[in-house]
Amino acid sequence: MSDKNRVIIFDTTMRDGEQSPGASMSLEEKIQISRIFDELGIDIIEAGFPIASPGDFEAVSAISKILKNSIPAGLSRHTKKDIDACYESLKSAKRFRIHTFISTSALHMKHKLNKTPEDVAESIKEHVTYARKFTDDVEWSCEDGTRTDMDFMCKTVEIAIKCGAKTINIPDTVGYTVPSEYTKIISTLLNKVPNIDKAILSTHTHNDLGLAVANSLAGVSAGARQVECTINGIGERAGNAALEEIVMAMKTRPDLMPFSTGINTKLLSKASKVVSNATGFPVQFNKAIVGKNAFAHESGIHQDGMLKNRNTYEIMTPESVGVKKTSLVMGKHSGRHAFKDKLNDLGYSGITDDVIQTAFGKFKVLADKKKHIYDEDIAALVDDSLIKEENVIKLKSLKVFAGTGEPQKADMTLEVYGEIKKASESGDGPVDAIFKCIKKLYPHDVNLQLYQVHAVTEGTDAQATVSVRIEENGKTTVGQAADTDTLVASANAYLNALNKMIIKRKKTAPPSTNLTSSQKKQKMKGI
Q1: For residues 116 and 140, is the Cβ–Cβ distance under 8 A?
Q2: 411 and 300: one domain?
Q3: Are residues 116 and 179 in the same domain?
Q4: Is 415 inside any structural domain?
Q5: Which of 159-163, 304-308, 378-382 shows the lowest per-residue confidence on average (mean pLDDT)?
Q6: What is the pLDDT of residue 392?
Q7: Same domain, 256 and 122
Q8: Listed range (115-119, 159-163, 202-206, 517-521) with the worst mean pLDDT
Q9: Is there a domain that residue 525 lies in?
């Protein structure tokens, strides 16, 4: 591959992806994601919108300090205050990018900006030039580009490049375009903008018509050499172009798309799971590349073909994206050594013996309950064990009384900061009774924003994975837990979210001054 066919991968999971309703991520979760992305080989990581909130500023700043290979970027509108915030949050990095934008469509200029085309052109000159003072890596975007007059777009792109922008992004902000039209836009810019050779063209497509990936690939084929995308395709409304789909499309069809990226595709599945866990957004089973069923074959005809030659029904190998072909690999007769080897195969390297032992004990119990143990079952057990190691409130026992003609009741025992506490509560259903017990044993006031249950694997004996999102004073946390007992999973998921909230309280609480020893003790407990 020649360098001219190298495509830059610009990930905006933690900026545009986080704009999905309910997809807010904590600082700790963003740092975990950024480490995975750095290892994955993403070229540019848009870590946030620094001016949007103190939390966004802090996240961009923290991420910019830990990246070893990827270049951090921050988004800004056309205001000097925004650009200053970008610089301040990114300045610790050896290299960084400032990404600034303004709308250029007639609709946006009139109704959103209340500006004339001449005003917008002047704004581009002023703010791209200002951003260029802080870094030589400035990206400029024409928001609502695919609904912008082509002659005006050519003019604005020429101005942005002249003022120092090295990357020009053409966003399909509302997911309106189609591949043939997007191809024409990119081709026109390459042919009509006189200084286009001094910049890289970038795609940024949304999925409102289900064409985000197709449009991005059309843009690359037309000459764009950067793609802006997100893991799992999360983003505003229907989402963005999915990074994993774009990368694997180019890797699978080099005959039609002879392009290369720096992505280690074997880490795609891992990255997908980390983002899904952080956002609380489950990946749909039939999602391309990283969905549970992406490499599953149920049809007898397909299974026969696979046994004879896997190429009959698989256009890529599951190993190429970090997924194992065989899902039924463990049973109740498996030993601890085999279990540990399996964890290494699933990407769980470096975890402690205590976590392995805890997960192995749960595995043995689960194996007695289930005929088939799948990779997803094992991963859920290990994830649950890793989460519980940091919990300061732990579930010790739970009994639930439910049925017709009787009130729904829960008897619960918790370990709260080492102290064993018991409670019984009735509720409007068993889950409500469980959550009331938790609130009684550890008094707190949060808003329950999400309660979601889905099965890890198929069958009536499947493990249930429960996701819970709670909010307190503008702070949100997401908790997850898995168990063959849905009610136990519900209790543990709520406790996981609550433990995360306690950690957040400690990190954002003002210093303890002039407090009695008793008050300080209470404060440490997050009460």
Answers
A1: no
A2: no
A3: yes
A4: yes
A5: 304-308
A6: 86
A7: yes
A8: 517-521
A9: no
- pTM above threshold 0.90: no
Rounded to a whole number of angstroms, the CA Rg of the chain reads: 25
Are residues 15 and 43 located together in one domain of the fold? yes
Domain boundary residue among 348, 363, 389? 389
Residue 300 pLDDT exceeds 50: no
Residue 448 near residue 504 (C-beta atoms within 8 A): no
Query: In this prediction, what percent of the chain has a pLDDT beyond 90?
Result: 62
**Does residue 372 have a pLDDT over 70?**
no
- Mark 225-254 as b/e (b = at least 16 C-beta within 10 Å): bbbbbbbbbbbbeebbbbbbbbbbbbbeee
User: Rounded distance, CA 471 to CA 450, Å?
Assistant: 10
CB atoms within 10 A of CB 285: 12
Same domain (yes/no): 316, 431: no
CA distance 393 to 443: 12
Burial 482-508 (b: 16+ CB within 10 A, else e): bbbebbbbbbbbbbbbbbbbbbbbeee
More confident residue, 330 or 474: 474
Domain identity same for 181 and 215: yes
Q: For residue 205, is pLDDT > 80?
A: yes
Q: Give φ, ψ of 305 to 5 degrees.
A: -65, -40
Which residues lie closer than 8 Å to 400 by C-beta, 6 or more apart? 408, 409, 410, 411, 430, 433, 434, 487
**Tokens representing residue 524 in the block:** 């440490």
Specify if 476 maps to a domain: yes
We report the CATH number of the domain holding residue 481 as 3.30.160.270
Among 389, 409, 432, the domain-final residue is 389
| β-strand partners of 77 | 101
Range of the domain at 146: 3-279
298, 344 contact by CB (below 8 A): no
- Residue found by looking up tokens 């329950």 in the block: 448
| Residue 360 counted as domain residue | yes
The number of domains in the chain is 4
> Other CB atoms closer than 10 Å to residue 261's CB: what's the count?
20
DSSP-assigned states of every residue in 315-368: SS-GGGGT--S--EEE-TT--HHHHHHHHHHTT--S--HHHHHHHHHHHHHHHH
Same domain, 380 and 310: no
* Residue 55 sits in the same domain as residue 145: yes
